[in-house]
Model the fold of this input.
Amino acid sequence: MANKINIKGLATEELAEIIVKEGFPAYRAKQIFHWLYQKKVNSFKEMSNLPQDLINLLESLFHLESLNGLAQQKSKDGAQKFLFQLSDKQLIESVLIPNKENKKESNKERTTICLSSQVGCQWHCLFCASGQRGFKRNLAAGEIIEQILAVQRLSGKTIQNVVFMGMGEPLDNYEQLMKSINILNDRLGMNIGARKITISTCGIIPGIKKLAENPLQVELSVSLHAAEDKLRDYLMPVNRKYPLSQLISACREYVKKKNRQITFEYLMLKGINDSVDEAQKLSQLISDFEAKVNLIIYNPLQAAQHEAIFFPSEEGAVYSFQQILKKNHIPVTVRYSKGQDIQAACGQLRGAYLKSQVTLNNLTSIRDRL
Done:
């Protein structure tokens, strides 16, 4: 398998080009995509409308690599977390998030998957577990795609929304990220609308600029968490390379070019960034362009896994912060972290697993279910 290509990392055009060179018509690529992403087959032999010589070719050139499922957890709020092992034994996480917040659609479950884009992360944000063990490598497009396929198989859920808010910084892996998004968006692939796909970044300005030039209308979310450089330098070392003034300028330009609203994520950390003064600073920073703010109630990490101890803001502080943004005509919502009882924050389950090297309590082995 070492010399074979992961077929799930190929766009239809790439696949068609390969098989046409081997003497097969281009339309076969569409059939193959249908089997991969609609029928979700696990072997080329299951592609029953393909000629045997094409199946033989596929088996010789490609592999259908699946992730090795190590663990699965389900929260009392319905969120599910999955720990996967890659072919090189590295570990990544994916989270399935049910959403029934819209009362008019109370009987309809809109399911979101939170995907990883890297193994680890190089930016070491103080409140995040993903970077605690450092950066290992980027994920290939096929490894990103396989997270969705594996979670769908294991959960039996149909996924309508995709967020790149798992392990890693998506815009540090821009090429493979966009390749995977094109497959997700392809009507022959997973047929997920571009506006149902969100890329979350800690503030990688070159990536934001590239995304501004890309025609796909995906959603962009920027993790801000502070409204002035000194505090953001402390919380997010990425700010030392891409300071707030430059980041906000890039965001403003993004909104102008894409004619799309941008979302700023803001973790509410007790006594750190949740004061009235910080709310006023945030309002001044982003009030001159189309932006909204998600105030996120912090999901605390276990102290043993963390360099610093943070706590969720008090309810009153959150309310006061929210009201100041509203008075400044900035759309704002409060979001509570899902899956706090199952270590659903990015990197927590991976960190615990690596630390113990045994299956944790309350985990269900899923090796045989993939």
The chain has a mean pLDDT of 88. The chain has two domains: 5-63, 68-369.
